[in-house]
Design brief:
By secondary structure, the protein is α/β, with parallel strands linked by helices. It has 14 helices and 15 strands. It has a 9-stranded mixed β-sheet with strand order 14-13-12-11-7-10-9-8-15. A 6-stranded parallel β-sheet has the order 3-2-1-4-5-6, sandwiched between helices. A hairpin with a 4-residue loop joins strand 12 and strand 13. Helix 1 packs across helix 11 and helix 4 runs parallel beside helix 5. The protein starts with a strand and ends in an 8-residue tail after the last helix.
């Protein structure tokens, strides 16, 4: 690595603290120096709490503040912005204009007009940027990316059913600013954009890494009636979304957030024109017949199965590796190390918001270029005057 990178943080909730832990490892290796940590609430910058969630951190030489301007005045080289997507008030633009390199957690916003302006300011500033799509850095997902380079993918299927109660309690004191009293903002549509936007965006971004750009989206949700909304958890019960990619691939995503189940289930398949990939947490398995065709007899399933070789798994997985890549990119002034720069990551945000728009329009097929540019969708791009109530 090059120089020791001065790193600051804004937002010390669940995700922000994960990034602090990873950057602390880089600091111990001599690659980074944590200079400032900011949060809107005093309780989240208390040294005792930080040391509880980030074992080994010494806060004596770190600026701890609730004032974002003070964070910037600490002169960081790089800044992690890890705040709920609906409470952005210009922090991304202010940091970019100050020449600070940015790591922005997803979703970067729930409103396309706001996100487009962020993208414009970042591009004008010339800084290095990344959005927190850590799954692009997971060893198994990189193995799929490499495997598909000489294949013709045709379809992807992703199913994820999680308990509504599975949303871990957040550190953001939403109750103080008109949000859910239980602080689980990810279960509130006004705060998270819904499960497709808050969680499905990770998988959709992974598909974009493998397949390219999304052309259109069509989606329908099963909405939660008012009588069944508890503690502000109003995200729909179920989501079915189809993403059509410009290269002809179709992606089908099925998700749910059910109460009183307390069980998660997931399945992920990628199909190319002559085989299947089963993508699991710790392995990727290909099913493909590679003998004389047509075969004299039906091959046994075991003869079709091959486990894809993977890059070495790094402790901490993609969540650590994305920070490692970001800090190295800043140190070496090399944006080529970034797999999800802000401008590229915009495609993932537009696609999942298109799912919400499609559902609101009774399952209409929404073309992403139109969503970004057509007057027809202007009201879906705009940020309301108040978004935290």
């Amino acid at each position: 690595m090059g120089k020791r990178v001065r790193v600051a943080f804004l937002g010390l909730g669940q995700r922000g603290l994960q990034h602090v832990r990873n950057v602390l490892q880089l600091q111990q290796a001599g690659a980074a120096e944590i200079v400032a940590m900011g949060d809107a609430f005093d309780a989240n910058i208390a040294p005792a709490k930080l040391q509880e969630y980030v074992p080994g951190i010494d806060t004596n030489d770190i600026l701890l503040t609730t004032d974002f301007n003070q964070v910037l005045e600490s002169k960081p080289d790089a800044l992690y912005i890890c705040i709920p997507p609906n409470v952005h008030t210009g922090q991304v633009n202010q940091a970019a204009e100050a020449g600070v390199h940015l790591f922005v957690e997803k979703p970067v916003s729930l409103f396309l007009d706001e996100a487009v302006e962020m993208d414009r300011v970042i591009a004008k500033s010339g800084i290095i940027s990344t959005v927190g799509f850590n799954q692009r850095y997971d060893a198994g997902h990189e193995a799929v990316h490499s495997f598909l380079q000489d294949k013709r993918p045709v379809m992807a299927e992703y199913t994820r059913h999680d308990a509504l109660e599975g949303h871990s309690v957040k550190h953001m004191q939403t109750e103080a600013v008109g949000g859910p009293v239980n602080r689980v903002w990810t279960a509130s549509r006004a705060w998270s954009g819904g499960t497709l936007v808050e969680a499905g965006i990770h998988l959709l971004d992974l598909w974009r890494y493998w397949f390219g750009e999304v052309e259109w989206v069509q989606a329908s949700y099963v909405h939660r009636p008012p009588a069944e909304i508890i503690d502000g958890a109003d995200n729909p019960y179920a989501y079915v979304a189809t993403f059509a990619f410009a290269n002809g691939v179709l992606g089908s995503m099925n998700m749910s957030r059910l109460r009183r189940v307390f069980r998660g289930f997931g399945n992920h398949l990628v199909l190319w024109n002559e085989g299947q990939l089963e993508v699991e947490q710790n392995a990727v398995t290909a099913y493909h017949y590679d003998g004389p065709y047509p075969p004299a007899q039906k091959p046994a399933v075991d003869s079709l199965r091959t486990q894809l070789p993977q890059p070495e798994v790094v402790p901490g997985g993609g969540t650590f590796t994305i920070s490692q890549a970001f800090v190295q990119a800043v140190a070496e002034e090399n944006p080529e190390l970034i797999r999800s720069p802000f401008d590229e990551a915009m495609g993932s945000l537009v696609a999942v918001i298109a799912g919400n728009v499609s559902d609101e329009l009774d399952g209409k097929r929404v073309y992403v270029k139109d969503l970004l540019n057509s007057p027809e969708y202007a009201k879906f791009r705009a940020k309301p005057a108040k978004t935290t109530a």
